[in-house]
Each structure stands twice: as C-alpha cells, then as structure tokens.
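Observation: inputs received (chain + zinc ion).
Thought: call the complex predictor directly.
Action: predict_structure
Action Input:
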Amino acid sequence: MKRTTRDDYRVVVTPRRLGDFGWMSMSDRMASSDPDRDMRERCEEIAAAVKRHVDNVGSVEVQFTEVHTCSHCDLTWEVLTAVEALMASHRQDEHSVEGEPVCCDKAIDEFRVERGLPPVRWEVTS
Ligand SMILES: [Zn+2]
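Observation:
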C-alpha cells in the first residue's frame, strides 16, 4: 500500500510588498522608482537577518521567478517561433524572422534595427 512520509522540509518566507505599509497600501510602482532593485534588497536583508538571528538554519537563499515584458508596451514578451515566422497569418511581412517580438510596433522596429532588417511599412490609419 502507499505510504506517505514528509521530506525536504522548508520554511517559506514571503516578503511584504513594497507598497504595503500595513496602515496603507499602494502599488509597488508608486512606492518605488525601481521595484526590482528594492525588492531584491528587501529579500537580501531578510535573508541576512534570518542567518544572524535564527538557529538551526541549513541554508538561506533568495529565489525569484523572472517575468519578461516589453519595455515599450508592458505586455508579456512573446516572439515568433521559426514556424510562425513562415506563416502569413503571423508575420508582419517577408522579412519577419524567428525571435521577432509580436506585442507592438516599437518592439518590432527596435528588433529590426538591431538585426539590420528592413523596417515594417506600417500602414497609417486615420
Ligand atoms: Zn511591446
């Protein structure tokens, strides 16, 4: 029969959001000019405090996930796959290649300049 035992115990510490002051709350972007840097610093401080003050700790490390967004439009960073770059329904024109962003005109223009590819001829809509 199946027997369940517990293993790999960990204590998960979640830092308080930058914009959460307890008595009031705002967005992290309003509370900090560089949320990524400030959150990392906060986590390093918590990790250092745990190492200093808590007994029986095997190791402490700061972990995070990476979120990729477009610096122009803030949407999730997505690019054409090799197959999509060949599909008329997905590509901008015959110069679209694998890795070309899909979110906005500025990201595509930037990508094309970096790669030395001809720019997309954006239709002007009035
Ligand atoms: Zn974009």
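Thought: report the result.
Final Answer: The chain has two domains: 12-64, 66-117. Residues 66-117 form one domain.
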